[in-house]
Each structure stands twice: as structure tokens, then as C-alpha cells.
């Protein structure tokens, strides 16, 4: 009797979307988990997703600058590992929140904190099981001309302005007009009447 290993396909980060997957506007960020600039940009993206709730989506692609951030590659692998259990975005946020401490044992602990149950998680990290998927993101970024992070693309076009909420909103609203839809209109804020 011959035993065969079950081959389980890995879900790459390019296929993990937050926001509305069928939205007409997609924001893609290339970044790494040790970068303060990327952490700040990630906070802006969180605001953007809230403001354009259901009208845009977001994909994070790994672009670890390992000459500056030696632990960024393993952190990226950890997020992909968490993504296999549907915990990519929880791990993504956790890694940015703990970007000053991204050693192997910390990564295992963070995975547990966000609900990852894979007993082989640490083994997969140590053996670079998800390393090629990080390299695929890096290669895609290089092919798109990414040299520094954070780097943004909106509907496939490079977004070269400062990643501020104001700049994103202006670009997305203009793009929505171009597309002829309300895809880029932010949610209307409810006005509160104050009795006086």
C-alpha cells in the first residue's frame, strides 16, 4: 500500500482581498512589516476602507527590503501562513502593530494570538515553506517598477502621490467619475442635530 501526501494549494497574498472583492476600484500596496512608513500608510488604507466601505478593495503585496529590514521576509511568510487559515488580515494588522519585534518565536506567538492553529506553523517558517510566495510578490513589484516602499497601485496604475487620505480620496473620486460609477464616492456622514 502506497501512501501519498495530500497536496494543499497555498493561497498567495495577491489572492487575499479585503473590502468588497467585486468593487470597481482596487488599491494594491507593496510594503514590508518592519517599515514605519508602510505602517503609517497601512493606517491610512484602513481609514480609506472604512470611508469607502463596500466600494473599494485592498490587496497587500510583500516587498521586504531585507537589507534594511532583516526580519521582514519571515514576517511576510508568517502572514501568508496565517492566510491559509483565513487569518491573513488579522496577522497583517498584528505584525504592523508589533513591527519592532518580529523574531521567529514572536511570529509564532502572534499567529496563536490571531487564531492560527496549524501545529506546523513554526516549522513552515523555519523551512521557508511560504518563501517562494513572498519572492513572487517581490518579483511582481520589481516588474512593475517598485524600488521603494510603500508603493501603491490603483486599478493597475501607479499612485505616485504621498499616501495620505486626502490624496487617495481625490484620486479615487476622479477615477470613479472616469468609470462613471459611484464606486469611489465615500459614505455620507450622518449629520447630528444638536438641540440647544
Automatic annotation (TrEMBL):
GO terms for molecular function: isomerase activity; oxidoreductase activity. Residues 14-174 form the Thioredoxin-like fold domain. Signal peptide: none annotated. Transmembrane segments: none annotated. It comes from the Bacteria. This is Protein-disulfide isomerase. Keywords: Disulfide bond, Isomerase, Oxidoreductase, Redox-active center, Signal. InterPro entries: Thioredoxin-like_fold, Thioredoxin-like_sf. Belongs to the thioredoxin family. DsbA subfamily. Gene3D superfamilies: Glutaredoxin (3.40.30.10). PANTHER family: DISULFIDE BOND FORMATION PROTEIN D, GLUTATHIONE S-TRANSFERASE KAPPA.
Amino acid at each position: 500500500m502506497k501512501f501519498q501526501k495530500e497536496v494543499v494549494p497555498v493561497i498567495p497574498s495577491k489572492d487575499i482581498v479585503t473590502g468588497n472583492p467585486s468593487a470597481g476600484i482596487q488599491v494594491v500596496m507593496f510594503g514590508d512589516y518592519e517599515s514605519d512608513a508602510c505602517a503609517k500608510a497601512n493606517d491610512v488604507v484602513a481609514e480609506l476602507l472604512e470611508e469607502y466601505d463596500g466600494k473599494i478593495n485592498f490587496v497587500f503585496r510583500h516587498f521586504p527590503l531585507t537589507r534594511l529590514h532583516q526580519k521582514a521576509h519571515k514576517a511576510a511568510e508568517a502572514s501568508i501562513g496565517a492566510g491559509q487559515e483565513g487569518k491573513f488580515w488579522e496577522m497583517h494588522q498584528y505584525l504592523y502593530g508589533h513591527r519592532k519585534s518580529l523574531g521567529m518565536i514572536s511570529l509564532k506567538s502572534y499567529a496563536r494570538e490571531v487564531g492560527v492553529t496549524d501545529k506546523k506553523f513554526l516549522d513552515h517558517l523555519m523551512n521557508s515553506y511560504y518563501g517562494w510566495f513572498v519572492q513572487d510578490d517581490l518579483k511582481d513589484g520589481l516588474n512593475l517598477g517598485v524600488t521603494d516602499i510603500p508603493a501603491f497601485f490603483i486599478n493597475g496604475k501607479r499612485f505616485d502621490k504621498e499616501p495620505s487620505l486626502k490624496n487617495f480620496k481625490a484620486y479615487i473620486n476622479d477615477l470613479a467619475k472616469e468609470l462613471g460609477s459611484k464606486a469611489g464616492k465615500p459614505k455620507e456622514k450622518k449629520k447630528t442635530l444638536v438641540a440647544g
